[in-house]
């Protein structure tokens, strides 16, 4: 099967999903509250639901918020989506970077020597077993509703995943690389800098993709920690009043942003890993 055929099939499946949702909205027109359908069709999402996003605009740029007596306008709705999306993206990527740095450092420390492994591995393993969603109320009590608490929650979720990924990647570095470096007189620090770190990146690619997906999931949990802005805040507000269409609209935004971030990372990492040998299993499975 050619690549063009695969793309056509994927596009056809996507169109079928869109049509299926629209058919469901026609077949089940029930409303959870007056004017809010249980299954909002695309025409509802593109008009009424989009304009309702203006309710979350705090005012500025010459546009008065609805809370201050302003009207629902397209500009207010667009600015509301942009501002809340920006807050969510900042939390997500700062938390992701923090978790990746902490997780990679701990993972490399565990592989450094037997002593560091004895000291660090057990506490990290204990932290890994704690259910992430169960930590939401604890983080809320520990860090309050501040920015630091949300970042810490996302970073914690990413770090525990990154630790396991780094340890596994280091263990899979071909021993011949390390032996050649030692033969050339490289110190342990030089081996880590010049051999291990470049060698583990191809295998870490999957870990980074998983961490990115986890970060998108945890940022919603983080914004449940009393956030006053962000897409998670809109989600909480919409849930309180039964605005299913707004919840679905926000979910679509999450899907859009996550898809863009995955595509960008995939494009950048593919260029960075041109030197790495490609697995032959893909052709055989296809």
UniProtKB/TrEMBL annotation:
Q: What is its main location?
A: membrane
Specify the ABC transmembrane type-1 domain's residue ranges.
85-265
Q: Which residues form the signal peptide?
A: none
UniProt membrane topology term? Multi-pass membrane protein
* Superkingdom assignment: Bacteria
In terms of InterPro entries, this protein maps to: MetI-like, MetI-like_sf
Q: Which CDD domains match?
A: TM_PBP2
**Regions crossing the membrane:** 9-28, 92-114, 151-170, 206-227, 247-268
Q: What is its subcellular localisation?
A: Cell membrane
Instruction: Print the keywords alphabetically.
Output: Cell membrane, Membrane, Transmembrane, Transmembrane helix, Transport
Q: Does the keyword field hold Transmembrane?
A: yes
Pfam families per record: BPD_transp_1
Name the family.
Belongs to the binding-protein-dependent transport system permease family.
Q: What is this protein called?
A: ABC transporter permease subunit
Whose protein is this, by species? Pikeienuella piscinae
